[in-house]
UniProtKB/TrEMBL annotation:
Keyword terms, alphabetized: Carbohydrate metabolism, Chitin degradation, Chitin-binding, Disulfide bond, Glycosidase, Hydrolase, Plant defense, Polysaccharide degradation, Signal
Entry EC number(s): 3.2.1.14
SUPFAM superfamilies associated with the record: Lysozyme-like
Catalyzed reaction equations: Random endo-hydrolysis of N-acetyl-beta-D-glucosaminide (1->4)-beta-linkages in chitin and chitodextrins
Protein known as: chitinase
BP terms from Gene Ontology: cell wall macromolecule catabolic process; chitin catabolic process; defense response; polysaccharide catabolic process
Top-rank taxon, per record: Eukaryota
Lineage: Eukaryota, Viridiplantae, Streptophyta, Embryophyta, Tracheophyta
Length: 231
């Protein structure tokens, strides 16, 4: 039997380890919450028409609850953190029309990639854009569902019904595809989100709109937008 002092030490070490693991996540969440204030979030949403479905669907609380699952979002130095959050919401603003749209306007396209055998389309289900980043395609729905814990293939409509899941899909896509290129400038984030459609001079007005939101939010956060703004 271990001596009493040894037992106390083991318990102490265990508690210290648990706190060490939990503390960084708590700090990150608090950091994001201090930047994404109610005034900032509502300032975006208030620009949408009163009739918009997103007015009652998208909430700051839902976003912050979703962000808890992604502690590396908005991490790093104060400047790096603010730039990433500004970039995220710049794209969200553009994709949803100031948090107006929960689903893509044109719902005629199934966005079904029949070649994707890992995440095959379910008959009758449509994988058009939904949520803050407008998650699109059976591949993304399947992978996001697996990562988050919902049936993205059989119930893609969940993204338009559960606001926390909706923000989680946006943050999942961001952390998987966009976060790794944040150090390359805002232009790289446009490339990752909709580069095939907008970049290379294809839709300059759309690119400039995204840049405009990003610069505006950086200004609100008191940080310079950095280089390489355009894709």
């Amino acid at each position: 039997m271990a001596p009493l002092n040894m037992k106390k030490n083991i318990v102490t070490f265990a508690l210290v380890g648990i706190l060490a693991l939990a503390f960084p996540t708590k700090v990150m969440c608090q950091n994001v919450a201090s930047i994404v204030t109610p005034q900032f979030f509502d300032g975006i949403k208030n620009q949408a028409a009163a009739s918009c479905a997103g007015k009652s669907f998208y909430t700051r609380d839902a976003f912050l609850n979703a962000a808890k699952a992604y502690p590396q979002f908005g991490s790093g130095s104060p400047e790096v953190s603010k730039r990433e959050i500004a970039a995220f919401f710049a794209h969200v603003t553009h994709e949803t029309g100031h948090l107006c749209y929960i689903e893509e306007i044109n719902k005629s396209n199934r966005y079904c990639d029949e070649q994707n055998k890992q995440y095959p389309c379910v008959p009758g289900k449509f994988y058009y854009g939904r949520g803050p980043i407008q998650l699109t395609g059976n591949g993304n729905y399947g992978a996001a569902g697996k990562a988050i814990g919902f049936d993205g293939l059989r119930a893609p409509e969940t993204v338009a019904k559960d606001p926390v899941v909706s923000f989680k899909t946006a943050l999942w896509f961001w952390m998987t595809n966009v976060h790794p290129v944040m150090n390359q400038g805002f232009g790289a984030t446009i490339q990752r989100i909709n580069g095939a459609v907008e970049c290379g001079g294809k839709q300059p007005a759309q690119v400039q709109a995204r840049i405009g939101y990003y610069k505006d939010y950086c200004n609100k956060f008191g940080v310079a937008p950095g280089p390489n703004l355009s894709c």
